[in-house]
């Protein structure tokens, strides 16, 4: 896409001296991106912040937090303990959990713990059919409730489970649940593997693009997310992420911090002001 005519010419890298070339090109790129956002999309609707303590509960939907985490327990007992601690924080604040629907590893631990404290209605797992066997523990199988598909986890132990056809539907439904939640809803990433990282970075990207304004927290147990946070630093210094978007990802050291940080979350200043019709 060429820049709007009133932007003036966009200089190329070889037109700058070596000392100022990177900074000048970066400023030109950022100005162009902002101009595009103003010229071709409608402004975002005003974001409303509600007082969680004083708002009438009958008018405010319950907080819903989506947790991304591994279907493995990891090598440190601290990871499973963090899942249990997070479930206890959810129970304390009457928070609903939406997650990937597995019953093993950190996924199973947070679901089991929260159901034991708050009851089955507090947990909604969403899992693609091919993963049901792979991410299901031996104690979780129950007769099929899905028209002949594989059996779903026991609701009394793991809460409600929805089986979907594909990964895209799973992620969309989890995000939609968060969007419908009350103030302080958002996303928290416990330790996990490729899938956890992919899910985390997708909602981070959606935040940057203005698709949603919910907070995204990484629960940095034993420095698990240090590498990702260093990557963010490097991306900013290398000119690929704006400094004003650093705060899209917020690190927390404890489950209590993670829940509190979502309550206090403010969208980053550098997010694109783009209009989206749907997730």
Automatic annotation (TrEMBL):
Region (Disordered): 137-157
GO molecular-function terms, A-Z: hydrolase activity, hydrolyzing N-glycosyl compounds
Gene3D superfamilies (alphabetical): 3.40.50.450
GO cellular component labels: cytosol
GO biological process terms, semicolon-separated: cytokinin biosynthetic process
InterPro entries: LOG, LOG_fam
Record's protein name: Lysine decarboxylase-like protein
């Amino acid at each position: 896409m060429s820049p709007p005519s009133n932007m003036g010419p966009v200089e190329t890298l070889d037109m700058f001296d070596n000392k100022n070339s990177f900074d000048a090109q970066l400023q030109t790129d950022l100005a162009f991106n902002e101009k595009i956002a103003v010229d071709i999309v409608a402004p975002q609707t005003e974001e409303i912040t509600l007082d969680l303590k004083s708002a009438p509960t009958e008018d405010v939907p319950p907080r819903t937090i989506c947790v991304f985490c591994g279907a493995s327990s990891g090598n440190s007992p601290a990871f499973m303990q963090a899942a249990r601690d997070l479930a206890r924080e959810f129970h304390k604040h009457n928070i609903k959990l939406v997650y990937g629907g597995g019953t093993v590893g950190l996924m199973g631990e947070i679901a089991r713990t929260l159901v034991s404290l708050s009851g089955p209605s507090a947990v909604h797992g969403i899992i693609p059919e091919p993963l049901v066997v792979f991410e299901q523990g031996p104690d979780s199988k129950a007769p099929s409730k899905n028209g002949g598909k594989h059996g779903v986890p026991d609701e009394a132990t793991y809460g409600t489970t929805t089986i979907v056809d594909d990964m895209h539907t799973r992620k969309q439904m989890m995000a939609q649940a968060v969007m419908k939640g009350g103030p302080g809803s958002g996303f928290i990433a416990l330790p996990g593997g490729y899938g956890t990282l992919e899910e985390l970075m997708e909602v981070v990207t959606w935040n940057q693009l203005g698709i949603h304004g919910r907070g995204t927290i990484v629960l940095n147990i034993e420095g698990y997310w240090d590498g990702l946070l260093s990557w963010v630093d490097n991306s900013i210094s290398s000119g690929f992420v704006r400094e004003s978007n650093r705060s899209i990802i917020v690190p927390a050291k404890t489950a209590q911090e993670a829940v509190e940080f979502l309550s206090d979350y403010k969208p980053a200043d550098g997010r694109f002001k783009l209009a989206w019709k749907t997730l």
